Amino acid sequence: MNQHRISLAALVAVVALGACVSTTTVQLAPSPQPSVCQSTANALVLWAPQWRPNQKDISEREAAAADGITQFFAKSGCFSSATVQRIAQPSAAEVAAALEQARSRYDRAVVVMVRELGPIVKIGSSAALVEGGTEVVLELTEYRLPALSAQRSFSVNWRDGGPGVIKGVASLPQDMQAALTAGMQPVAK
């Protein structure tokens, strides 16, 4: 009977370890999308959250989004320079007003709408009993200034996790950077 318990414990350990593999998936819609980045352009990046009505921990998520967005544009080489600015509301009027002020100083503008940024957990959805990770959902709109009409708009749904994976909020700035990399597609340095 001891041998049976040891074999069962070994089997459970192998299944648990195999179930804790984290995978990253990215969906662009519509897909495919060419790179938004242009390494010689000066860009204005406007961003705003657009959370669902029952969103929890809004201030923490917004701080993580701001950090991730700022770090991406500072380090990615996506543009030769980028000014990141949070706008209060994701309204067409506020975006148009910001673009009107920026059109003589920038070559490009990108509006980043953050719709989701956070950990996800599903219980009982797989053999591992717990499936989780983090998710970032963005809506990206590109403008080529001085024109004030959108060049294109598309969504990015980035997920990292899997069966047996539990993630907290510590990785959210890095997750935001990874989602922006997947959507904006900067040229690798």
Descriptive report:
By secondary structure, the chain is an alpha/beta fold. It has a single domain, classed as Rossmann fold. The protein has four helices and six strands; from the N terminus they run αββαβαβββα. The chain has helices at 2-19, 58-75, 92-102, 172-184, and strands spanning 23-29, 38-49, 79-86, 108-123, 130-144, 152-163. A six-stranded mixed β-sheet has the order 1-6-5-4-2-3, with helices on both faces. Helix 2 (58-75) packs across helix 4.
Topology:
Layout: H1 2-19, E1 23-29, E2 38-49, H2 58-75, E3 79-86, H3 92-102, E4 108-123, E5 130-144, E6 152-163, H4 172-184
Parallel strand pairs: 2-3, 2-4
Antiparallel strand pairs: 1-6, 4-5, 5-6
How is the quaternary structure best described? single chain
Span from first to last CA?
A: 58 Å
Sheet with the most strands, sense and barrel status: 6 strands, mixed
> What shape does the CA trace take?
globular
Output the CATH class name: Alpha Beta
User: What's the overall average pLDDT, rounded?
Assistant: 86
- Going by CATH, the architecture would be 3-Layer(aba) Sandwich
**CATH topology-level fold name:** Rossmann fold
Using the CA coordinates, give the radius of gyration. 20 Å
Helix- and strand-based class? alpha/beta
Low-pLDDT regions? 1-19
Q: What count of helical segments does DSSP give?
A: 4
Give the strand line-up of the largest sheet.
1-6-5-4-2-3
Overall tally of structural domains = 1
Query: How much helicity do the residues have?
Result: 25-40%
Order of secondary-structure elements: HEEHEHEEEH
- What percent strand? 35-45%
Secondary structure: number of strands: 6
